[in-house]
Amino acid sequence: MSSYIDVLLPVPLDALFTYSVPPSLQGSVERGRRVLVPFGRNKTCVGLVMKAHDTKPEFDVKDIKLVLDDSRIVTDIQLKLWHWLSDYYMSAPGDVLQAALPGGLKAVDAYRPKTEQCLALAPELRSERGMHVALDMLKRADRQYKAFACFLSMTRWDTIEGATTHEPVVEVTRDELMNSAHCTSATLKNLVDRKLLVPYEREVGRLNHGGEPHLENIKPLNEAQQEAYNKIMFSFLKKNVVLLHGVTSSGKTEIYIHLIRQALEKKQQVLYLLPEIALTVQIRQRLQRVFGDRLGIYHSKYSDAERVEIWRKQMSPNPYEVILGARSAVLLPFTRLGLVIIDEEHETSFKQQDPAPRYHARSAAIMLAAMTGAKTLLGSATPSLESWNNARTGKYGYVRLDKRYNDIQMPEITVVDIKDLQRRKMMNGPFSPLLLSCIRRALDNGEQAILFQNRRGFAPMIECRECGWTPRCESCDVSLTYHKALGQLTCHYCGRTYAVPEVCPCCGSRDLRGRGYGTEKVEDKVMELFPEARVARMDLDTTRTRNAYERLINDFSAHRTDILIGTQMVSKGLDFDRVSVVGILNADSMLNYPDFRAYEHAFMMMAQVAGRAGRKGKRGLVILQTKSPELPVITQVVHNDVDGFYSDLLEERQLFHYPPFFHIVNVYLRHKENAVVSTAADAMGALLRSWFGGRVLGPDKPSVAKVKAMNIRKIVLKLENGIDRDKVRVYLGKGKEAILRDQRFRSVQVYFDVDPL
Ligand code: ADP
Ligand code: ZN
Ligand code: ZN
Predict the structure, then answer these.
(1) How is residue 10 annotated by DSSP?
(2) Does 744 share its domain with 691?
(3) Rounded CA gap, 509 and 503, in Å?
(4) d(CA 729, CA 721)
(5) Which of 359, 489, 733, 749 is deepest in the core (most CB within 10 A)?
(6) Are residues 314 and 352 in the same domain?
């Protein structure tokens, strides 16, 4: 019985809030349950009890209104992980709560169980004799008789010690009965009115298992896979984290499946993290075929009600044994986690950008595993430099698979110099003659092609041919992308749309042209060049709805489409049988990105896209188009020289003080007024420099210095390994406080991005 509680609220404030508990509710408050509390002037808010106690605070506190749960909805481990997230990534605990709980658990009454109308036999009829009486009554009502008899054949009661139990063993829904008896609802209503059947509502789960899964046996591993499996298990004896570095199509997923089975046999739960929803479609189908409804899926495209049900199931006595999910699944409750698999562990989308907490799901998952005593397996054909380095230095175990399953050869990569072809006027739009002839041949052979272009929309930029004017977003410091299908210009930073101008507002010229090729324009061009081909496009614009990915992927996989055009989405772990050609239309857009990780990301992207070629049957072909064929990174992609690439990269990172040798923390300041944010950033920079000296770079304008009407400044902290990071965080917090205390900067937003990508 506690009279006070400290409550965590989903607000970006660095504090818990204390409330008093009226005597009637004192028996039901407990750490981990939700309460409804007054907040601010007239608001109520759902919060999580962190501590129940009897210490009367020195200030006035208000009563809570309600306790929402009759048992706790989060585990202690979760609270521990959340605490770590808020501490390490320097975001408010309320932000972590906000990110972790599905909306339905944060809003009062938002979650309502879904129900189904059922029918039961009236209690007084539940005996052999009763049923005969009923049938007798219906002798002259033919339709009712038929429906009632049908109902009797469908339902069933158990008899316990001669007496019929109250609850039917087999429940019959109205819909089922109407279907089976071919009767109308009017007929059923008659049966209810005559008190033969009693209607009731049954709660049903929203969780869709995709029908009765057709369970398959697990495929036996081949020799190389078995050896890798054994090495992983052996490595787990000594290390908590193991990196499985296996080329594309080496059969890593099959190894995961064997590891999952092994964990389930030990009654452990498994968390299988994937970077993006695009991947969950195929992997889900593969896992579902083996594990059926022991598998639960959790990601942001699921409705809130579904996510609430999964959450509740995880807290129930029989939770899902395997959870497959994207980033946020790491925040779910687990009670007996034994294994975490992080597939495509190099993917940058594991890192949350905005809003806070800006956490990396890989780090969070490794931390969660450490807290629960589970093991973590990282898998990739192109590991992140961080994980590669951790393996190299012995912090992680390391297992390698160098051959593709079934001895299929790695794809043959041909580099095409588009600068030279452009000079000789031999390019056809974004296509070299070689790429076109390869696509032609693939189509003639009944094979498929994937074309990768890293820009969505029609033309990434519009330009006046007379004066060079280009339309820019009014709220952001970027040029607008032309979307032809929408007939609009769109800002890819804030989503704002604009009409396409007919004349240049600068010089009045009508000669406005699009520059560059987005996926939409590539699609147009492909349809023009190969009118008989069935073409599909996969990018952010074509996959906004929940089932869009699935349809695109299933269509391509069943060969209902011939050519798939897409952004980086097509590079992700997809497994198709008949892709004989992959075209990388323009490698330079990735290589020229102004970021120290540009080459790392470009290498991984190219290697991954290339890996989609020739996965079954014959050797695949990759055409890599670039204006800079002489770059070493291009040669390293061609030879799949991962080791060479990483050792060059490590040398460079050491030289220029970048990760994994140095930790980076970015400090951002945001404000509507450019002058204000500029002065604030200078002040913050000076303050940080007084503490951290030469580790501080900036402030500078980031490459996009204005987003959604907010001007941005960035300060970079490079911290050597071994520095006391707890202390660093304390000082950064002090710096932020000092800035916000200054009258001039009160409305400046200051936030941190720890280990940015
Ligand atoms: P990766 O995850 O390394 O890209 P996959 O697990 O997707 O590789 O395997 C590539 C293809 O080879 C898939 O179609 C998969 O079904 C098949 N495959 C891999 N291992 C086996 C196995 N042991 N038995 C049968 N098929 C396998
Ligand atoms: Zn102009
Ligand atoms: Zn904008």
Answers:
(1) S
(2) yes
(3) 6
(4) 15
(5) 359
(6) yes
User: Same domain for 642 and 666?
Assistant: no
List, in order, residues 6 or more apart from 157 with CB less than 8 Å away.
121, 126, 164, 165, 167, 168, 169
Tell me if 405 CB under 6 Å of ligand 1: yes
168 lines ligand 1 (CB under 6 A): no
Residues 429 and 552 in one domain: yes
List the residue whose alpha carbon is closest to atom 10 of ligand 1.
Answer: 249
Nearest to 274 by CA among 322, 368, 341: 341
Domain tally, the chain: 5
CA distances in angstroms from 340 to 81, 274, 373, 394, listed in the order given: 15, 11, 11, 20
Residue range(s) defining the domain that contains residue 62: 4-77+91-105
Q: Is 28 part of any domain?
A: yes
- Residues 632, 529 share a domain: yes
Q: Please check whether residue 480 lies inside any domain of the structure.
A: no
The span from the CA of 296 to the CA of 67, in Å, is 29
Phi-psi region of 40 (alpha: psi -120 to 50; beta: other; left: phi over 0): left
Q: Does residue 676 lie within any of the structural domains?
A: yes
Q: Assess contact for 144 and 135: CB atoms under 8 A.
A: no
Are 20 and 61 within 8 A, CB to CB? yes
In terms of domains, do 684 and 742 share one?
yes
> Which residues fall within 8 angstroms of residue 407, CB to CB, at 6 or more apart?
none
Give, as one character, the DSSP assignment of residue 30: -
Return the best residue to mutate from 342, 382, 405 for the ligand 1 pocket (most ligand atoms within 8 A of CB).
Answer: 405
Average pLDDT in the 111-136 region? Answer: 77
Higher pLDDT, 375 or 68: 375
Residues with CB under 5 A from ligand 2 (ion): 464, 466-467, 469, 504, 506-507, 509
Strands (E), 448-505: 448-452, 461-464, 481-483, 488-490, 497-499
Residue 156 falls inside a structural domain: yes
- pLDDT tens per residue across span 390-442: 999 999 999 999 988 888 888 899 999 999 999 999 999 999 999 999 999 99
Shared domain for 609 and 674, answered yes or no, is no
Question: In angstroms, how far is the first alpha carbon of the chain from the final one?
Answer: 47
Q: Which two tokens stand for residue 163?
A: 């007496």
Mean pLDDT over residues 522-536, rounded?
95
User: Which of 154, 179, 203 represents a domain boundary (last residue)?
Assistant: 203
Q: Are residues 555 and 696 in the same domain?
A: no
CATH number of domain containing 273 = 3.40.50.300
